[in-house]
């Protein structure tokens, strides 16, 4: 049997790679963006929350894994592809922001009705919107594929995938906490005014992100 002194040196690189993936990913995803606001909104509704968390974690793991495997270099060598991804992200963020402001200005009770079960939305529709918010945002690729992926690619051999596992764990912890926060805020969002503030803030955030992304084209 292996003794602790023998196992410690062997496990040290593994734990270091896992911790590196965890800390790097957590430092980048802890921000209020389009994806996070949507997960928070679904958590307040109490609809398909686990599926949303699972999709976000899966997307992060796949994109970071792709970056580790070399997609970061591919994007760097295909500026036109990066341009069209950016343009699509700008248009989607603008559209999402307009819909959020429309709810805030003309349908302030829509979020409250949905939270009470007055508005049904299927799992496919929810996950489709979340996938679009995730995959049409160019900064997701910048954070996961380029930044985190390039750091993970520096790990040796199989430690690259230990790094990816650490990053996926950080993603799971963050989105689980976000979902829990949304559930805790259900009482706060028991009034149309709270939904109006959330939708107005969401719309403003989407417009700022769209401008920021377009500025970098």
Automatic annotation (TrEMBL):
Annotated GO MF terms: amino acid transmembrane transporter activity
Cell compartment(s), UniProt: Cell membrane
Keywords: Cell membrane, Membrane, Transmembrane, Transmembrane helix
Gene Ontology CC terms: plasma membrane
Transmembrane segments: 20-40, 52-75, 81-101, 122-141, 161-182, 194-214
Membrane topology reported for the UniProt record: Multi-pass membrane protein
Pfam families: LysE
Keyword hit for Transmembrane helix: yes
Highest taxon of source: Bacteria
Protein name per the record: LysE family transporter
Origin species: Paenacidovorax monticola
């Amino acid at each position: 049997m292996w003794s602790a002194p023998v196992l410690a040196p062997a496990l040290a690189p593994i734990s270091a790679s896992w911790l590196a993936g965890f800390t790097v990913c957590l430092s980048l995803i802890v921000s209020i963006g389009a994806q996070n606001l949507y997960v928070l909104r679904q958590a307040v509704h109490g609809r398909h929350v686990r599926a949303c968390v699972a999709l976000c974690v899966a997307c992060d793991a796949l994109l970071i894994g792709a970056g580790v495997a070399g997609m970061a270099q591919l994007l760097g060598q295909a500026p036109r592809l990066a341009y069209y991804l950016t343009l699509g992200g700008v248009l989607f963020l603008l559209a999402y922001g307009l819909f959020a402001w429309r709810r805030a200005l003309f349908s302030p009770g829509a979020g409250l009705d949905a939270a009470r079960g007055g508005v049904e939305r299927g799992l496919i529709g929810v996950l489709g919107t979340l996938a679009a918010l995730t995959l049409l945002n160019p900064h997701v690729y910048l954070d996961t594929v380029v930044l985190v992926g390039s750091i993970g690619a520096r790990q040796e051999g199989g430690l690259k995938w230990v790094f990816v596992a650490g990053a996926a764990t950080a993603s799971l912890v963050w989105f689980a906490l976000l979902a829990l926060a949304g559930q805790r805020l259900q009482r706060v969002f028991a009034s149309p005014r709270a939904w109006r503030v959330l939708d107005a803030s969401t719309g403003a955030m989407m417009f700022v992100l769209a401008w920021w992304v377009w500025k970098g084209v």
